[in-house]
Amino acid sequence: MNNSSRFTLPPLPAVLLAIVSVQAGAAIAKGLFPVLGPATAASLRIGLSAVVLLVVVRPKLGQLRAAQWREVIPYGLALGTMNFLFYEALARIPLGLGVTLEFIGPLSLALAGSRRWFDFVWVALAAAGIALIAPWGGQGIDLLGMVLALAAGGCWAVYIVLGQRTAAALPGPVAVTVGMLFAALPVLPFGVGSGGLLALTPHLLLLAGLLALFSSVLPFSLEMQALRTMPTRTFSILMSLEPAAAALSGWLLLGENLTVAQWLAVLFIVVASAGSTLTTSRPQPAHGGE
């Protein structure tokens, strides 16, 4: 028996642990925002993740063909923009609501062009979820934070489409590693310009390393491990639990209390996401946006 098999988790625990890892990473990120700012936190997460992946995967960049570069560069730019917008949203709204709104992107992609009447149930549920979150009275949830989370969701949908094309051109670990290098390009100027890097201390750098580990490196490894044996549709249904996991994480780790209406909104989006997975050929969202 291969010694490495001792450390191999069954697919279901691997996916659930990946979900927990991502939400723990998001909680660490929100803890860094008051000192470093969201742009710097995003820069550190992407930059450190890229360094770790480069060391582990060791892609042969000189052997990539022009066609492969054409696929992986826009994929990486979409990944970086998505992370930047998501962190800017998290600086303004609770974690659970940020992930819930972001999920509208991949959910819309899954339902786009659908001709089945039952899929309109999922559209209606998603719309009801947004309606429950929206600050109709002009107070409560930060409107800019909501817009940024929805924009991050739009980038997530683009990321899924580009990710499928990139995965067809490059092996998965190589695609993510090289993509992460280009993901830094749209984020670093804001991270440097904000001045947050000047506030770095050894303690904050350690927290940034944990952020990269929990938000990118660990969940990516666990998801790749699970997808070797788990059906894609099962994986997608489990990923639909993300908004609920984020809301629970925000409550337990950050003390972010949601109203009853906001919890209902989370529930509606989760059901719509899981339901669309069962009734459409939905591409599974990965943890790129969180």
From TrEMBL:
Keywords carried by this UniProt record: Membrane, Transmembrane, Transmembrane helix
Pfam hit, one: EamA
Listed name of the protein: EamA family transporter
Family: Belongs to the EamA transporter family.
Residue stretches making up the EamA domain: 144-274
Family annotation (Gene3D superfamilies): 1.10.3730.20
Transmembrane segments: 36-57, 69-87, 93-113, 120-137, 143-162, 174-192, 204-222, 234-254, 260-278
Localization per Swiss-Prot or TrEMBL: Membrane
UniProt membrane topology term: Multi-pass membrane protein
Recorded coiled-coil stretches: none
Domain of life of the source: Bacteria
